[in-house]
Amino acid sequence: MLKSPSGEAAPAGSGRVARVPAGVLCCIETIVVHRQEILIGDLSTIGLAKMSEHDMRRPWPEADIIVDLTSRYEIDFLLLSSGEDLVLTKIGGAKFPNPHPDEWWKCIHERGEVAMVVASVERFLTEGNLTDDMRTGAWFGLCPVTISAFADGLGSTGSGQPDLTRH
């Protein structure tokens, strides 16, 4: 099991999505997603970049994927349509048997974005990092977190949950 510098573990959700603390893959919290979990054929059309073709000294690309972390047990990946009617379409996601780690969840909601890496989750968790051959096929980007309207205001988490972004 991976550990962040603070010692928090990075559990996996059914081997298809992993929640990774800051300091393991990059300086912010990350979601590693198996390719089959994103229901889009060409990942370059949604703002993700191929890791092997990106100068990693440059900022990460802003992806068109919006991450819904309203629930402490789920992650949904959404895509905003570009037509006249703005519609969010679910293009993937995961459910976890245990809640998102407190530090990981809190930091993402404070920042309003999360890093996403599309790669083999099983190999990532086994290897403890992205090996050079895994980087060749990996895609990545920064994804904003959804902001929703609730009965008690706007925020990035559901009603009844602690939310640092509620206004």
- Determine the structural class based on helices, strands and strand pairing: alpha+beta
Strand order of the largest sheet: 3-4-5-10-11-6
Radius of gyration: 15 Å
Q: Give the terminus-to-terminus CA distance.
A: 36 Å
Helix content: 10-25%
- Which range does the strand content fall in? 25-35%
| Strand and helix order | EEEEEEEEEHEHHEEE
Sheet with the most strands, sense and barrel status? 6 strands, mixed
Gross morphology is globular
Mean pLDDT across every amino acid position: 78
Low-confidence runs (pLDDT<50, min 5 residues)?
Answer: 1-13, 163-167
Total of domains? 1
Task: Please report the total strand number as a whole number.
Answer: 13
**How many helical elements?**
3
Oligomer: single chain
List the helices and strands and how they pair.
Layout: E1 2-3, E2 9-10, E3 12-13, E4 17-20, E5 30-33, E6 49-50, E7 65-68, E8 74-80, E9 88-95, H1 102-111, E10 113-118, H2 121-127, H3 132-137, E11 139-144, E12 148-150, E13 153-155
Parallel strand pairs: 5-10
Antiparallel strand pairs: 1-2, 3-4, 4-5, 6-11, 7-8, 8-9, 10-11, 12-13
